[in-house]
Amino acid sequence: MATLADYGPEVRAEVKQVREVVARLHEQLIKWNLVVWTAGNVSQRLHTADLMVIKPSGVRYEYLTPGSMVVCDLDGNVVDGTEAPSSDTASHAYIYRNMPNVYGVVHTHSTYATAWAATGQNIPCGLTMMGDEFGGPVPVGPFRLIGSEAIGKGVVETLKKYPKSPAVLMQNHGPFTIGKDAEAAVKAAAMTEEVAHTMWAARQLGDIIEIPQADIDKLNDRYQNVYGQH
């Protein structure tokens, strides 16, 4: 089994940098009320090697440091770290192997997004910000048991049907989000919880007015290609 010492200095330098990024981003999950206790995890894939950095399993967020982050290969095998990796490691690895443009994955149990997942419902696209960020509804994926790559398979299968969405709500479990890096995936997780909460509130007031797909496409194109700094 390979260890980090088997990799060159460029890889080891990126591992150090990504460990710092991933450790810091777990603080954002707490800031945006996306996790409780030890639930949830962030990972980021390296550009210099087929490796990823992920949260250790069952460790409280206030104890996380760059050094406690675990380095794994894209089959989920530990390459460096003193802790056992997240129980979702195999699923993160599966997503990276099968979605080559994805370099960040996040899983949370945020309250409102998980409520939609518990009822097996897509979050309907009733907000322009959903058109912007998700390109349509936030889809629900299939029920899968934890501990293998089965959840990752469900994420990939679902997002192939919703290629503009960076989020999927795994039924009876919670949201998984993807991005060009871990920060983008954390942003998608925060946005998922925001729209889940708002759409839940809208349902209490009446029927949600869904935006036509042609307008969603225009919103998404503007947000992805015009909005912000380029």
UniProtKB/TrEMBL annotation:
Q: Which cofactor does it need?
A: Zn(2+)
Question: Which domain of life does this protein belong to?
Answer: Bacteria
Query: Class II aldolase/adducin N-terminal domain spans which residues?
Result: 20-200
Q: Which GO terms describe its cellular component?
A: cytosol
EC number in record: 5.1.3.4
Q: Which Pfam family, giving just one, matches this sequence?
A: Aldolase_II
Record's catalysed reaction(s): L-ribulose 5-phosphate = D-xylulose 5-phosphate
Q: Which keywords fit this entry according to its UniProt record?
A: Metal-binding, Zinc
Zinc as UniProt keyword: yes
GO MF term set: aldehyde-lyase activity; L-ribulose-phosphate 4-epimerase activity; metal ion binding
What GO terms describe the biological role, i.e. biological process, of this protein? pentose catabolic process
Q: Which EC class is this protein assigned?
A: isomerase
Task: Name the family the entry cites.
Answer: Belongs to the aldolase class II family. AraD/FucA subfamily.
Annotated protein name in UniProt: L-ribulose-5-phosphate 4-epimerase
Q: Which organism is it from?
A: Bifidobacterium leontopitheci
